[in-house]
Amino acid sequence: MHRVGICLILGLLVVCGVVFAIAPELDLAASHLFFDARGGFVGITPTGEMVRKVGYIVPFGLFAGAIVLWLARFAGFRALWLPRWRAIAFLVLTLALGPGLLVNTVLKDNSHRPRPVQTAEFGGPHAFRPWFRFDGGCVRNCSFVSGEASTGFWTLAPALLAPPQIRAAAIAAALAFGSAVAALRMAFGGHYLSDSLFSALLTMLIVLAAHRFFYARRRKPEDPDAGREAPRQSVPDPDLRRDAAPL
How wide is the angle at C-alpha 123 spanned by C-alphas 119 and 125, nearest 5°? Predict the structure, then answer.
């Protein structure tokens, strides 16, 4: 599962990179779907702000909940599922490497890509830049890639730790949640479509790679004779093999 998922994500990253490099106008067209020339971007409303706050809090709420359950184990509580140190290490590492380091530190502060609301096509002061041009007018906390979409798709990590009976539903919910957060950021004019796609794919790649590292075990082929006891060789009693002396 891990290898297939990782290869699929890598392939999609290449496809996205090529498509949006050849046709960067796709980003402008997608953002225009959320833009009204008279009122600006449709997501900038009190309701939109409230929904955005919920989308921002949910991932950190899941993380905090996992920490609380982990601490409950040390307090002597017993439940059907309480995370162990490996689960907490997995959640901490993926949250730190994905939304923390790669997205918000490395890319957003160095890409210099203006957000849609900052570009001339949507009434902003800066020229549009495709995803691969790191020479835009934004100084820091820029458009490429989406930090909130990355955090939204990070919820795939706790979903992978869900009990087997509900894991598929948890994964589907995590992907739907991440997609909703990404769409909302586009509705705010905060990110282009390529920002959201790259953010989602990079975050999921880190989550799957880390899950493989923490949980995948290589099983050696079983020895058909393993576990069998070697047949005992009977050692004849010398007293029984000794020829009886004549009376």
Answer: 50
